[in-house]
Amino acid sequence: MSTAVVVGSGPNGLTAAALLARKGVEVTVIEAAEVIGGGSRTAELTLPGVLHDSCAAIHPMGVASPAFEQLGLEQHGLQWLWPEVDMAHPLDEMPAAWMVRSVERTAEGLGEDGTAWSRSFDSISKSFPGLREEILGPIVHFPKQPLRLARFGLPSLKSASRYAARFRTERARALFGGAAAHSFSPLTDPMSAAIGVALVTAGHAFGLPVARGGSQSVVDALESVLLQAGGRIETGRRVSDLSEVEDFDIVLLDLAPAGVLGLAGSRMPPRVRSAYSAYRYGPGSFKLDLAVEGGVPWTDEACRKAGTVHVGGSFEELAAAELSINRGVMPERPFVLVAQQYLADPSRSKGNVHPVWAYAHVPAGYPGDASGAILDQIERFAPGLRERIVGTFTRSTLEFPEYNENYVDGDIAVGANSARQLVFRPRVTLDPYSTGIPGVFICSQATPPGGGVHGMCGWHAADRAIRHLAA
Ligand SMILES: Cc1cc2nc3c(=O)[nH]c(=O)nc-3n(C[C@H](O)[C@H](O)[C@H](O)COP(=O)(O)OP(=O)(O)OC[C@H]3O[C@@H](n4cnc5c(N)ncnc54)[C@H](O)[C@@H]3O)c2cc1C
Q1: Whether pTM exceeds 0.85
Q2: Burial group, residue 190, by CB count within 10 angstroms (0-12, 13-18, 19+)
Q3: What's the pLDDT band for 315 if we cut at 50, 70, 90?
Q4: CA of 65 to the centre of ligand 1 (A)
């Protein structure tokens, strides 16, 4: 029987482990933290009984994931739950823009820009389910459905600001801008539209659900598949050198390129080592979790019903904030992402005290406390929030790497989403999961298709590892 070790138990590591175990490989997962899950964990961060997602909150890519579907996570306890409004974007002195799964209803809500929104997303969101395997994988590949894929891919080559120019109203531009800003890139950069197009398209195709009981239940389901297939997991053990795991036939590393270098740099071919050393990390994040009595008092009704609220004002304001963090300057009004998972999943709340999840985009390694800036931004659209807060928890860019060392300088996306790294990550190669060391593969979100709880990096890396075993 072949043996495999997976270092790191994030969603990608566990997906790779579960797939390998199902193929009859004897799999061991080794995790540095005491708890499995990496960026998909849930904890009582503020008050007993109030469940906060430590990192990932909203799962359009999880519900769309071919890997999770193949593993049958719903038979292992995972349940997706959808809020009434998928995404809302409050604006000064006008109604919030909002998105629901139906393109038609969203278009109606966008008034003058409804036709432009439908033209942009109706057809591609209908073809998204059939294209997901191709989209959620290396961009450079031989396409199975070239024309349909091109309809999705070509608009993604644009900058977010060029893409947004098709909309005439501030509401539609901001709604798209909030999705595009998930890339952490300057919104004028080439391909900075890509993540926004993918997020809105997946949102229209599958909605923006949360996982019942918290994002931890995604990794708990993966663990259950793995254990059922005979795999084992060791927690509380950090692997610091490849020699600790060299008895295994294959090694998969759910690590940032920096972590791979730390573990195996001296054994990597020089060209791969220098490519990993040149890998660019992106801006940082500052996380603020709140326990809020009665929930956030948003002025706008759509925000009160939305699972995801993008707080940052107009497209131009978002673009200025994102440019600023990329230049290393903390903006006065940062882009803030808010999630209200409890609206779809009341089991997260304790009575009338609800968990509210928020984080701001900040410069890489920003040492300051961004809580005040985050609260100011939310209060701009929800006056009175501060009086309702009964518990808080923060995690700064300096604390993120203590939680998970993949987050270099607080970069939760584990790599800048520059055009180059969107196409080729972690290095320019047609074999992105290979580290250049025979039998050693990288499977983290630093590989295609990049960030998100979807397990697809692990899926492709496991496939690559199985081909290595068969060779
Ligand atoms: C604040 C925040 C919000 C997010 N929001 C969303 C969201 O709403 N939706 C979404 O889909 N995604 C979101 N994400 C992104 C998502 O969490 C990641 O894309 C995903 O977790 C990546 O999975 P992974 O398996 O690549 O690695 P990770 O989840 O980073 O897991 C890597 C694991 O490896 C372990 N490890 C590292 N080094 C070692 C070592 N040397 N030895 C042993 N173990 C080691 C770490 O402890 C960690 O458990 C968010 C992330 C953060 C931080």
Answers
A1: yes
A2: middle
A3: very high
A4: 16
